[in-house]
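Supplementary Note 2. Why include the ligand at all?

Several targets in our set were suspected to adopt different conformations when bound, so apo predictions alone were not considered sufficient. For every target with a known small-molecule partner we therefore ran a joint prediction. The input for glutamic acid is given below.
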Amino acid sequence: MSELYRELDTPTFRLAVAQFEEAAERLGLDRNLRERLKIPQRALIVSVPVRMDDGSVKVFVGYRVQHDTALGPSKGGVRFHPEVNLGEVAALAMWMTWKCALVELPYGGAKGGVRVAPERLSRAELQRLTRRYTAEILPLLGPEKDVPAPDVGTNAQVMAWMMDTYSQQVGYAVPGVVTGKPLAIGGSLGREDATGRGVADVILEAMQYLKLDLANATVAVQGFGNVGMHTARILHEIGAKVIAVSDAKEGVYNPRGLDIPTLRSRYQSNVRPLHECGVGEQISNQDLLQLDCTILVPAALSEQITEKNAGSLRCRILAEGANGPTTLGADRILEEKGVFVIPDILANSGGVIVSYFEWVQDVQKYFWKEQDIRDRLHEIITAAFRRTLEFAQAKKVSMRMAALMNGINKIVQAHLARGLYP
Ligand code: GLU
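The joint prediction is reproduced in token form.
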């Protein structure tokens, strides 16, 4: 066991490694490569001192982890959240490697994070935090090296500050150093709702396979951030009945279907808690997961569906908008119950797929129409869904194992071809 493993040993990292071990075992992967791929290639821990508005200085801790760069620059979001830790960031970086490989992007996987509650900072403090974090991880970054994007607690504005900080250091504008930027500085049309759109695309594929009708489908979404909100909006727009959504605190439920446009506009004008938006009744996050529905979309944090609650889930399809929402123990229970799981690295890959389009547009300095972006996203994600489903059926493995085995195998082939340096 690598020494580094002990430094990373947290529940989320253990989950990512256990998934990897199971897939590696089924692939018959040799021991040497297994040891290499289980731990990240690089992990940087930085201190992020920030002058607060009251004149005091607070020191935050930040991370950037590059799991693998065999196929190209490493790609992955930056998370601002009070519970961020090195093991979690390393797990998320590993999932990015398998995700990018599964959908055939020329990227490795990375993730970053700062342990901070961003909603407690003023805009000026958030900007100073972002710029100092970026400056500290700068040696790792670059359009050909490592390309951050938004994740939990960050957004297009944070990406703009990261892009500016990097560009100030090198002396010219480098839009391709981050994705998920505002349109004004080289962002892409269709990036903001790309993850939600991809989730909806693969749900439609799964419904077709299971011979289910969208007009009779009910949906529950845990999380009302960038992923959950757009997933709910798009599914509502195409005719599904969204019966519940929640944020970090609690949720809102209406068995006749929520008026999503009203909910969205009230929530965006800061009406809190969610059920005060006047579209349904209050429901807890736990009860939401256990609602009788066709499609359940966990779109918040990891390890929400565990051995404790998996037995009480009553959905037909579990579409994982979040990264790592389901533990391995829960997977076994869901398999026995016959729940059709669309695993995270497939279901939420729409975000990084359109990030790839954004990076290509930035590097080529030639920008695409929104319809082209939607069409190409649809093409890539539905092809990946079909490949995964065929593989799962042929090898008699779960959709999660099929996705992981496919992603891992692409990285393995790259390592075998390149060999071990020196
Ligand atoms: N944070 C997103 C994810 O987990 C997007 C990453 C990216 O676009 O690089 O997939």
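DSSP finds 15 helices and twelve strands in the chain. The pocket of glutamic acid is lined by residues 75-77, 149, 151, 179, 323, 348, 351-352, 355 (CB under 6 Å). Comparable summaries for the other entries are listed in the accompanying table.
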